[in-house]
Amino acid sequence: ADIISTVEFNYSGDLLATGDKGGRVVIFQREQENKSRPLSRGEYNVYSTFQSHEPEFDYLKSLEIEEKINKIRWLPQQNAAHFLLSTNDKTIKLWKISERDKRAEGYNLKDEDGRLRDPVRIKELRVPTLKPMDLMVEASPRRIFANAHTYHINSISVNSDYATYLSADDLRINLWHLEVTNRSFNIVDIKPANMEELTEVITAAEFHPQQCNVFVYSSSKGTIRLCDMRSSALCDRHSKFFEEPEDPSSRSFFSEIISSISDVKFSHNGRYMMTRDYLSVKVWDLNMENRPVETYQVHEYLRSKLCSLYENDCIFDKFECCWNGLDSTIMTGSYNNFFRMFERNTRRDTTLEASRESSKSRAILKPRKVCTGGKRKKDEISVDSLDFNKKILHTAWHPTENFIAVAATNNLYLFQDKVN
Amino acid sequence: QEMEDKVISPEKAEEAKLKARYPHLGQKPGGSDFLRKRLQKGQKYFDSGDYNMAKAKMKNKQLPAAAPDKTEVTGDHIPTPQDLPQRKPSLVASKLAG
Predict the structure, then answer these.
(1) Which one of A188, A258, A325, B96 is least enclosed by Cβ atoms within 10 Å?
(2) Which InterPro entries does the protein's record reference (chain A) (predicted)?
(3) DSSP letter string, A353-405
(4) pLDDT given at position A28
(5) Residue B71: beta bridge partners?
């Protein structure tokens, strides 16, 4: 199985999509309520698998274009079919996933096994009838949005108008209409005239969940810009600029690298946004630009390991973060297959592990603890024993229930709240 | 115990370690070098022939590991798509789910 590169629940939470490094999308569906198996509600089974992107080669630049799926975003469901957007570095595709559970039988011109009947032999006409068949789930590409990004796409975000969406690469953000593939509008362009003057890149972007004219984008320098599309066609000038002031005396070689924001997510209620940088998660009130309202340390013990993390490139790992449905808890991943949850009201934090050994079916996860110095207690793990190859970069939270999906390299874990 | 002014933060200590190992590391910390490397992510090949050769080489290398039971396709004839082992099935749901 391939390395999972993105995980996303749909709006109802009944479907969970994963994208992988091999360009494949696997969709899981929640088991329906089943009286004979009361515990089966809450299980997710494979619903559909399809190849979304293939590796390509850019002949002009002699560059390989990876088929890895960077992001998947669902569209809200408007009819029996499901739609999602999936993107690699260069091309976004709109996929339609539909069910077929009936088949027409009794054709006039062909037999049941498909062989053509000789028209001369047909003496009477019959009307084909629909008969039930085993459920078949088909995925078909409905739109291909290509050739709009010179740099690598890091984000896509569906607008609350359900008609447009944005795609962001390192230097530009484009606005698309879901129906139109041959045109997109550039709404942010931070490419300097002279590339030697390049100082920051766009790392993530998202539309506001209710205000269809507002979006934010984060940068490699730890800043977030909020833009209003009503103010001008090209939103190079931000409406709000979010940055936490830095103590100049604590600045080091690593400061800018670890301040780079790897993910930005609006809260469901649209009043807050959350940013993830290398060592922490910050919650910002959209009405306050000069500092975050909450800061949570994910793995502060790594601050004394930055040198080796720089050497093995782990310092550039891009962790994502997510809100629960009520915006009361936030979750993000760490190393050693650990992931962290922070309860905003109580400030309680938990560290859990996603691994085969610690996750037997229906077993309750034991909280984990990293020993930062001195004597290591039993059951604690020391910083030097952490496996930095086991990183949890992608997590997702069910939109309404306490169900979480955690991607640990090439394994997907699904956890739920204790059922009494 | 009082903290002395000269106590170095863990971050600065790591910085000193890094500078000791790589004295020529750029003056501009986290600046254009990183960004330019980031913008050029993606393996560059000399030309498309080079790319196709590398892809073919990758496929041949994978054959012994992927399908030890099946007849290996190497050497005396050019492999065709039918000869290559089937792609492994995709993710299955975690055992927690089933």
Answers:
(1) A325
(2) PP2A_PR55, PP2A_PR55_CS, WD40/YVTN_repeat-like_dom_sf, WD40_repeat_dom_sf, WD40_rpt
(3) E--TTT--TTPPPPP--EE-SSSPPTT-EEGGG--TTSB--EEEE-SSSSEEE
(4) 97
(5) none
Report residue A204 CA to chain centroid gap: 11
**Which residue in the set A62, A170, A304 is minimally distant from B47, CB to CB?**
A62
Taking contacts as CB-CB distances below 8 angstroms, the residues of chain B near A359 are: 94, 96
> Residue B58: phi, psi to the nearest 5?
-60, -45
Decide yes or no: CATH 1.10.357.10 for domain A55-92+143-416. Answer: no
Q: How far apart are CA A228 and CA A245, in angstroms?
A: 24
- For residue B38, the distance in angstroms to the closest alpha carbon of chain A comes to 9
Residue numbers in B near A201 (CB within 8 A): 35, 38-39
> What does the alpha-carbon distance between residue B19 and residue B31 come to, in Å, rounded to a whole number?
16
What is the Cβ-side half-sphere exposure of residue A101, based on CA atoms within 13 angstroms? 4
d(C-alpha A239, C-alpha A265), whole Å: 18
CA atoms within 13 A on the CB side of B62: 14
What angle is formed at CA A285 by the lines to CA A284 and CA A289, rounded to 5 degrees? 80
Please write the tens of the pLDDT for every residue from A253-296.
999 999 999 999 999 999 999 999 999 999 999 999 999 999 99
Please give the pLDDT value at position A399. Answer: 97
ipTM of the complex: 0.74
pLDDT of B65 reads 44
Task: Give A-chain residues touching B58 at CB under 8 angstroms.
Answer: none
The answer to whether A44 touches A16, Cβ cutoff 8 Å, is: yes
User: Which A residues in the span 391-410 are in contact with B, Cβ-Cβ below 8 Å?
Assistant: 410
Measured torsion, CA atoms of residues B17, B23, B24, B29, in degrees rounded to the nearest 10: 30
Residue A121: phi, psi to the nearest 5? -80, -15
User: Per-residue pLDDT tens for B32-45?
Assistant: 677 877 887 776 77
Domain spans in chain A, listed from the N-terminal domain onward: 55-92+143-416
End-to-end CA distance of chain A: 34
- Confidence bin at B84 (pLDDT 50/70/90): low
Q: How many CB atoms lie within 10 A of CB A262?
A: 21
Record the tokens describing residue B31, joined without a space. Answer: 């600046």
Determine which of B33, B38, B88 to mutate to test the interface with A (most A C-beta atoms within 10 Å).
B38
Whether A27 contacts chain B with CB within 8 A? no
At A22 the three-state DSSP class reads: coil
